Amino acid sequence: MGALPNISLSRRLRRTPFSDGVEAAGVSAYTVYNHMLLPTVFRSLEEDYHHLKSAVQVWDVSCERQVELRGPDAGRLMQMLTPRDLRGMMPGQCYYVPIVDETGGMLNDPVAVKLAEDRWWISIADSDLLLWVKGIVYGFRLDVLVDEPDVSPLAVQGPLAEDLMAAVFGDGVRAVRFFRFGHFQFMGRELVVARSGYSRQGGYEIYVEGWDVGMPLWNALFEAGAGMDVRAGCPNGIERIESGLLSYGNDMTDDNTPHECGLGRFCNTQTAIGCIGRDALLRVSIEGPVQQIRPISISGPPVPPCTSAWPMRAGNTVVGRVTSAAWSPDHETNVAIGMVRMTHWDPGSELTLHTPSGQREAVVEPAFWN
Amino acid sequence: MGALPNISLSRRLRRTPFSDGVEAAGVSAYTVYNHMLLPTVFRSLEEDYHHLKSAVQVWDVSCERQVELRGPDAGRLMQMLTPRDLRGMMPGQCYYVPIVDETGGMLNDPVAVKLAEDRWWISIADSDLLLWVKGIVYGFRLDVLVDEPDVSPLAVQGPLAEDLMAAVFGDGVRAVRFFRFGHFQFMGRELVVARSGYSRQGGYEIYVEGWDVGMPLWNALFEAGAGMDVRAGCPNGIERIESGLLSYGNDMTDDNTPHECGLGRFCNTQTAIGCIGRDALLRVSIEGPVQQIRPISISGPPVPPCTSAWPMRAGNTVVGRVTSAAWSPDHETNVAIGMVRMTHWDPGSELTLHTPSGQREAVVEPAFWN
After folding, report:
1. What local confidence, expressed as pLDDT, does residue B370 receive?
2. What CATH number has the domain spanning B66-147?
3. Nearest C-alpha of chain B: how many angstroms from A349?
4. Which residues from A are below 8 Å from B126, CB to CB?
5. Is this complex's ipTM strictly greater than 0.95?
6. Given CA atoms A9, A14, A19, A20 in this order, what sign does their dihedral have?
7. Is-contact B89 B78, C-beta < 8 A?
C-alpha cells in the first residue's frame, strides 16, 4: 500500500456550501458520497480521532442529501418506503429507517425527519434514493412532490458539542433530546437542528437550508469555539467502526436484508401496512437471517484500508467477510465490521482472515467498542 | 490550485475486474463514477492525450455499469424509459438514449444495447438509474427482471484500436460498424464487442461478462499490443471536451432537458408512444429550449479544472455557464463546454467568463474541435 492516489475534481463531484471552509482548514483527503465531496482526513486519521473524542469538531456532511416529500400523500409514501412502523412518529422526531426493495434488499439506510404530516426529509446514505422514490411516485400516481432541496447538513460532534452549539444557537439547544429536532435562529433564518450524527461522541446536525447561510454559519461556529479547540473534522473511519456505525456500500449493499444488518428491530412487518418489501421481510423475520453483522477484532499490526470484502474462513470454508477495518489506538487492536454466517457468529468464534497484508486471526466480539 | 487532494479508498468505492492491472500500470488519479473507481490520469493529462490520439489505449470503464432488463415486458419498459423511438432498433444495435423524468429532466444519458427482443443492457452514465427503473417496474407491475449484472466494459480506443482488437479477437471485429455489436470469443466465453467509446479516436467497447475473465483479457490486450505502444488509459478530460462528448453531472443534470443538451434529435415525442416525460418534452419541442450546450473557447493561459459552474456574462447579466474546460495542446486554446442562453448562443458571441483564476474572454464557437 503506497501513497494514496489523487482525486480528480470536477463539477460532477459536487462542492458544498462549506467547501471553502473545508479547504482553508487543510483537508487532506476526500471520498465521494451522493455525487458530492465528503472530507475523510484533515491532519491524520489518528489525530482527527483523538481530537473528536476529546473536544469538538465541525463536519461538512452536506453529502447527506435530503429527499423532500411534500403533499397530501407524503405520509403514505414514507410508510411505503420503509418497513418501520411510522404511526407513532410525531413532527419533531427523526427515525432511522431501512429502505428496501420488493425483495427486502437494502437500498439505503437514511434518517427520516418528520417536519409535518405532509412534509418530510429523508437524509440519505450513498445511493440515489431520489430516483427510487420518484419512480414509485410516478408508478403509483401519488399526490406528492419529490425533490432534492437546497439543504446541507453540518454536524457538530464531540464531547464539547453541546457547549459550542449553545454558544451559537442559545441554551435552548441543550434541551433537544436524542433523535429529536427543534427550530433555531441563525442570521434571521430558522434552521432545523437535531441531536444526531455519525459518531458516538454526542452532538448535533444542523440542516442548513440555503447555500448562502453556509459559510457564515461555519465561521460563527469557529469563532464561538475558539476557546474549545474546535476543528474541522469529518466522520472518522476508526471511531465509526469502534461505535458499530454501519456504512451503506461498505458494510451492506442491496444484497443484504435489514435483518442481516442487525436492523430487524426497525422492521415491523406485521404493522407497517403497505410497505414495499413486506412479503419478503415477513419471511425473513420468521426464518431469521443466515448471516449477520458482527464486531470483529483482527490480530497483529495495523491492517491496510479495507477496499474490498476480505474473506473469513473456518478451515477451508468461507463463513464471512470483513468489510471495514482500522487500527484502534484506544483499544490497541484492529477493529472491524463483518458479515458472519450463523454457524460462526457467536462471540469468541475464531476465524482466519485473508487480507492484502497476509493472513490474520479474526475473533467475533460480543459488542462494539464504544 | 495546489496539489490535488487524495482519495480515501474503501469498499464503497468499488474496485473493478481490472483494478490490479490499472494499479500495476501506474494510475495516478481517480474519480468516482457509479460508486466505482474510474481512472482519470496515468502519466499526465497531456501525455495521455497525445498518446490516445496517436496510438491505442485500454480503458477500465467498468463504471459504465449495466442495467439489465429481461422478460416479456423488457421492450415495453425500454420504450417507457426514453423518448427516442426504438421501433426500428434491431438486436445487434446500440442506441444513445436520453432518459428523462416526468418533467423532461435528464436522469441519465446511457447507451442502450439490444441483445434480444426480451433482453437489454443499459450502459449507464453516473446516476443510479437502476433505482429509477426498479421503481417504475414496481409501480407498473411490469413482467421484467431488472438488475446489475456482472458485466464490466473495457474500452480499446485510439487510431490503432482496430489492429489491436483484430490481434485478440480476429479480423471479424473489423467488420463491426459504428454503434453495432457482435459476439466474439475469448477464453471460450462469448463477449459482446461494440464499436463505440467515449472518445472520437475510434475504437471498441468489450462488455466483459464475468469478473474472472477481466485480468486475462487485460493481459492478452497488452501482450498483443506490445508492438503498438499500447498503454493503459482512460477517458481524457481534454480530448472529450474537444470532441464535444457531454458528461452527465458535469455538463447536464436533472435540471436540463435533452433539447438544452443538443439531444433533441433523440426525442421522438410524436412517435415514442408511452415514454415517460413525453408531455413535457412535446411542449419543449414546440417552443424550443431557451438555453443550449455550446462549444466555448476561453482566452489566456491554461484554466484550472472546472469544479463548479463558471458564470458567463454579457454586461452585468449572466447568460450562460461553463461546466467543463481544459487547455488543448493541439488547438492551443482553452476548450470548454457551456450552456448559453439563446440571446447569446450564436457562434462568435463574445462573453465575459468568471473563473477562479480571474476574468477571461469566452467565445461561442461554431463547432467542437474534433
Report:
1. 87
2. 3.30.70.1400
3. 24
4. 12, 35
5. yes
6. positive
7. no
